[in-house]
Amino acid sequence: MAHRLQCMHRHRTERLRPRVRPNVLRLDWYQERARTVRGCTLLRMLHVLTLTLTHQKPMAVLSKNGTEVFRVDALEYSLSFRSNGKVLKNEGFGWKLVNLAMPFDDALAKHKKLQSNIPRAYAEYRAAVQREFPLPVRWQYLTLRDLLGDDLDGIYTDLADRGIHTDLETLRELHELHQTYRADVDARKGKAVA
After folding, report:
1. Which residues are bridge partners to 180 per DSSP?
2. Alpha helix locations (H) across the chain?
3. pLDDT of 100-140, one tens digit each?
4. Would you give the distance in Å from CA 154 to the centre of its chain?
5. Considering the entire predicted model, what is its pTM?
6. Vertex 129, ends 125 and 131: CA angle to 5°?
């Protein structure tokens, strides 16, 4: 508390413009001002600002949030419904708490229903992608697949350049499973329209 009062007092007494001698600008004042603002280090301020601007929450730990009730392993993320009523999400960059727009039990029931109604073609494709690419690098494959489409050599080369090792046969199998899944989606849309 005393440190906070000192910082507040120093901030009030210190003017926002530097004390200057005639025609001489004190650069050390600006450097000091950049390092400390109300007692906070610049790195701490940048960290807080980054979290605020990107709307990211600090990392969460699975073991500190009860036991797992249900897990959703989607292509681009994993959700973990915990026994303490929280939901954690991992998009490949660590677990983070999720703010639910509905009560926990409703969200859990909704996700269980969605997972039970997944088409077989999509489930096979998703399982194959999850086997081949772990979650932290999966987004890179999915982005390349969307950008390059049928160019399997380009996907293979770009993944190899990034240090993600796979073979051309596996990429061909994944491409065929993706085409089967897309054909199934198009057939379902055709039935819905007809």
Report:
1. none
2. 2-13, 27-35, 42-54, 104-116, 120-132, 135-148, 152-161, 168-193
3. 888 999 999 999 999 999 899 999 999 999 999 998 999 99
4. 26
5. 0.64
6. 115
